[in-house]
Specification:
Layout lengths: L6 E5 L5 E3 L2 H6 L8 E5 L6 E5 H11 L7 H10 L4 E3 L6 E3 L2 H7 L4 E7 L2 E6 H7 L7 H9 L11
Antiparallel strand pairs: 1-7, 2-6, 3-4, 3-5, 4-8, 7-8
């Protein structure tokens, strides 16, 4: 699957259903029949929506871990905690299970934010806090993370 693009605001109803925005549904068109996996984020109070193809690729990496190493076993247990297989119905809706709604602090207003090959599902207020530039200097973060990455032979990123 190619990278997913966009940040979208939407609402979740009282039953925990959200209607995918049309541009996002279009990007998922090839993945709709295979389904999705919804899980807790490792680092943030949000959810991660994996197209099944991306989830399977992640599981191939995780399956290479030696299960006789306690840290690996602990990681696998925590990484897969609360994982749910999710389908998107014909109307473009997906149901967020109650335990995941609680984990992510989801109220009514949501932000769906692309994160390369997955989509993060955030409560809108928590998302705004997470991207608040006053907490982290994004310029410093960008330099630390991407400053030494040179993909081209000519040294230009």
């Amino acid at each position: 699957m190619n990278s997913i693009v966009g940040t979208y605001e939407c609402k979740v109803d009282a039953k925990g259903r959200l209607l995918l925005p049309a541009p996002l549904k279009k990007q998922f068109s090839a993945a709709l029949q295979d389904g999705f996996v919804l899980k807790r984020s490792v680092f943030q109070p949000c959810l991660e929506l994996y197209p099944m193809q991306e989830w399977n690729a992640m599981m191939q990496k995780i399956n290479k871990l030696n299960r006789f190493v306690k840290k690996n076993n602990d990681f696998i247990r925590r990484f897969t905690a609360g994982v749910k297989v999710i389908d998107i119905d014909n109307l473009g809706r997906l149901l967020i299970p109650k335990d995941l709604v609680t984990f992510a602090g989801i109220n009514k207003d949501l932000v769906l934010s692309s994160a390369v090959n997955i989509v993060e599902i955030w409560d809108k207020d928590l998302y705004e806090k997470a991207i608040d530039d006053s907490v982290i200097d994004f310029a410093d973060l960008a330099e630390d993370v991407m400053g030494n990455v040179n993909d081209d032979d000519n040294g230009v990123s």
